[in-house]
């Protein structure tokens, strides 16, 4: 009875205004997530993307721990270097068409132009397969001509990786189609949930069948997992598209779409290179053992970035729709919310990761705790990037692709210089410093560009929603 009296007294002591604010906030969140307007869809997509990224981060983390323990530091380093290369090149070989869908499809659907919706979806798939196959053929030729200059332990994994390229490109294209239609789970689950689990399952199956615990075996498992995942995703999305838009005439405007896709390719290509160049340069200069340690540390801290990724995945269609509708004030307000969605969760998750860093790294193996300093360095770079939110997405959806290309070219140039200078001298810490430095430069450039072009102050501690955007968008 005494405890009950204490609880009742505590409840009475709680200010009514605070309870009212909590109830009001909960009501707003529920209404926001259940609304049927564009921002409601964006919010639901952000929530789904966020949940998928949490689950996928856990799956990827556990699977990487198991792979590292199965293969050891040296073989694991070989595998992750080659795997990063195949994901990087496979994504770039789409030449921006996978993301161009996110720019165009919501606009075409808004005006019921289903002929161009069908045409763009088909064009993106075919183009991704053709371009990635051409890149793979060039890779086979380069491997044949220059294989003698490559370390022997990389040759066979690279050969297997070239067969994976077309499916990586097609998978990225299918993800773009699904994101453009706000199918968050369909877009993200194959790449971030299904494929990592299949890689691990196929790897365990091959080892059980008698294959050695090497990078070659891991690449064979990745080959099988990628084909199964991508083909399943293809059939699923084609079925959904038929139900949503039905069969009908197709209109293809390849030249117009390619003119937009190419700058997007350069923007996202530079961004993707910024994200992965540290691992690539580390693989060029350092022993595979060091590469494995750096990759484990960087991917552990990358768990923080799923917040930014989730917001980016959800915001692009909404940015495109608002800009296309000419609703500049709402565009400004929504941009401000995306920044806050990015920064504060990233800060909280990052602090937790630092507190548990040594424990998490030790799960990969005793030698991996040498990468804790990498966690600390990358944390500050990730915070800098999160402080401006998905600024590059806002600029791209507002038609400022060429400006984004220049910004990312500058950031990538600085990143390459920093990597080449710092990695040989400071090893894995040099790679982390280069990556964090590039993130600071990228964030600063995006902040200035968005403020200059759209009069929106993208910064976690600013209030961009209070500013009006000029009607010209200039």
From TrEMBL:
Membrane topology recorded in Swiss-Prot or TrEMBL: Multi-pass membrane protein
InterPro entries named in the record: Poly_Biosynth_Transport, Polysacc_synth
Domain of life (superkingdom): Bacteria
Ribonucleoprotein recorded as keyword: no
Entry keywords, A to Z: Cell membrane, Membrane, Transmembrane, Transmembrane helix
Compartments it resides in: Cell membrane
Membrane-spanning ranges: 46-70, 76-97, 126-147, 153-171, 183-209, 215-235, 256-273, 293-311, 343-364, 370-395, 407-426, 432-450
A Pfam family recorded for this sequence: Polysacc_synt
UniProt GO cellular component terms: plasma membrane
Official protein name in the record: Lipopolysaccharide biosynthesis protein
Organism of origin: Rhizobium setariae
């Amino acid at each position: 009875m005494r405890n009950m009296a204490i609880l009742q007294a505590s409840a009475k002591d709680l200010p009514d205004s605070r309870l009212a604010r909590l109830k009001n906030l909960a009501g707003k969140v529920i209404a926001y997530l259940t609304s049927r307007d564009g921002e409601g869809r964006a919010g639901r997509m952000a929530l789904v993307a966020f949940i998928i990224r949490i689950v996928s981060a856990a799956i990827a983390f556990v699977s990487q721990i198991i792979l590292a323990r199965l293969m050891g530091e040296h073989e694991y380093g070989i595998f992750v270097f080659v795997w990063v290369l195949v994901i990087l090149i496979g994504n770039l070989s789409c030449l921006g068409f996978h993301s161009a869908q996110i720019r165009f499809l919501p606009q075409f659907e808004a005006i019921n132009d289903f002929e161009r919706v069908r045409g763009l979806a088909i064009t993106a798939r075919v183009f991704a397969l053709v371009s990635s196959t051409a890149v793979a053929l060039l890779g086979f030729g380069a491997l044949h001509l220059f294989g003698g200059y490559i370390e022997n332990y990389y040759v066979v994994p690279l050969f297997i990786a070239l067969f994976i390229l077309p499916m990586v490109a097609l998978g990225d294209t299918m993800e773009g189609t699904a994101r453009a239609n706000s199918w968050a789970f369909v877009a993200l689950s194959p790449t971030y949930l299904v494929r990592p689990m299949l890689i691990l399952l196929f790897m365990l199956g091959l080892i059980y069948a008698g294959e050695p615990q090497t990078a070659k075996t891991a690449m064979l498992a990745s080959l099988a997992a990628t084909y199964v995942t991508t083909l399943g995703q293809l059939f699923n999305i084609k079925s959904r598209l038929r139900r949503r838009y039905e069969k009908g005439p197709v209109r293809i405007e390849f030249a117009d779409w390619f003119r937009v896709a190419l700058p997007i390719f350069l923007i996202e290509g530079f961004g993707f290179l910024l994200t992965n160049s540290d691992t690539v340069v580390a693989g060029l200069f350092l022993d595979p053992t060091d590469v494995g340690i750096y990759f484990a540390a960087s991917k552990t801290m990358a768990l923080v970035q799923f917040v930014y990724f989730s917001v980016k995945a959800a915001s692009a269609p909404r940015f495109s729709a608002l800009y296309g509708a000419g609703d500049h004030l709402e565009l400004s307000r929504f941009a401000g919310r995306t920044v806050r969605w990015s920064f504060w969760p990233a800060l909280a998750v990052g602090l937790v990761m630092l507190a548990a860093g040594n424990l998490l790294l030790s799960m990969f193996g005793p030698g991996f705790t040498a990468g804790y300093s990498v966690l600390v360095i990358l944390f500050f770079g990730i915070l800098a990037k999160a402080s401006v939110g998905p600024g590059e997405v806002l600029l791209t959806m507002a038609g400022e692709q060429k400006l984004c290309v220049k910004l990312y070219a500058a950031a990538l140039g600085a990143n390459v210089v920093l990597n080449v200078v710092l990695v040989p001298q400071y090893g894995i810490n040099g790679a982390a410093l280069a990556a964090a430095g590039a993130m600071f430069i990228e964030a600063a450039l995006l902040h200035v560009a968005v403020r200059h072009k759209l009069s929106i102050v993208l910064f976690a501690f600013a209030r961009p929603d209070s500013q009006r955007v000029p009607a010209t968008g200039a």
